[in-house]
Design brief:
Order of helices and strands: HEHEHEEHHHHEE
Shape: elongated
Number of helices: 7
Distance between the termini: 22 Å
Number of strands: 6
Helix content: 25-40%
Radius of gyration: 21 Å
Structural class: alpha/beta
Length: about 230
């Protein structure tokens, strides 16, 4: 199942960074927002590096001539990347260089950016443009991350071959003990035992949010590559 996807990654130019956005038809809202962001990035890449005619909007260069390539992978159709990296929620952004994984995250920043100048921190808290800026989900964030990932890849700095998403042993807290508590002799006694243990367990958030296929390459069922729609 992985052969076609891996062959594609290995066939990309050695100096090209490949951004893969993992989405799922089971989470349409979160997926559509992620695809919209990456489509904006994809368009800018072609405009800036594709020798685009601004009148006809046609590019004279091919995708292999670009420094960055963007594609989507629907983990609802193929479990390949979900199983390989233990992906439990979408979107997830993966960046490869020379066929090897350089970056993997659900965002494009390593920390919450609380510096929101020119905006009221309370009034604008729920405004989507502000949230995108705060959590590293702007076009500039993507390009900054792509540049860093490409630089890391050129220096041989890759993620471990066995990289997988997950929570650390410390994050599990007392989850093992929690699972062993039985609802007998009474639910009251069981709940009293569970309450302090629950506070030490960090639960991964799962989004409850059609996916449009517009990128050059789309990977679907069983990791098979196909043209974007």
């Amino acid at each position: 199942k992985s052969l076609e996807f891996d062959n594609f990654l290995n066939s990309t130019p050695k100096s090209q960074a490949v951004l893969v956005v993992c989405v799922s038809a089971a989470s349409p809202l979160a997926s559509s927002k992620a695809l919209s962001l990456i489509e904006d990035v994809n368009g800018i890449v072609w405009e800036k590096y594709g020798d685009m005619d601004l009148v006809t909007r046609k590019c004279n260069k091919k995708v292999e001539d670009l420094p960055y390539q963007c594609l989507q992978f629907d983990i609802a159709e193929s479990r390949l990347l979900a199983q390989r990296y233990n992906i439990k929620s979408v979107p997830i952004y993966l960046i490869y260089y020379a066929g090897k994984l350089v970056y993997a995250s659900h965002t494009f920043t390593q920390h919450y950016d609380a510096r929101l100048e020119d905006h009221h921190p309370t009034v604008d808290r729920m405004h989507e443009p502000i949230l995108k800026k705060a959590f590293g989900l702007t076009v500039n964030d993507v390009f900054r991350t792509l540049e860093h990932a490409k630089a890391d890849g050129s220096k041989g700095k890759f993620l471990p071959p066995d990289f997988r998403f997950g929570i650390s042993a410390t994050a599990m807290g007392d989850a093992v003990l929690l699972a062993k508590i039985k609802p007998f002799p009474s639910a009251t006694i069981a709940n009293a035992k569970k309450k302090p243990l629950l506070q030490s367990v960090k639960v991964e958030c799962t989004p409850v949010d059609g996916i449009e296929k517009r990128m050059t390459n789309v990977f679907g069922r069983s990791g098979k590559i196909g043209p974007g729609g």
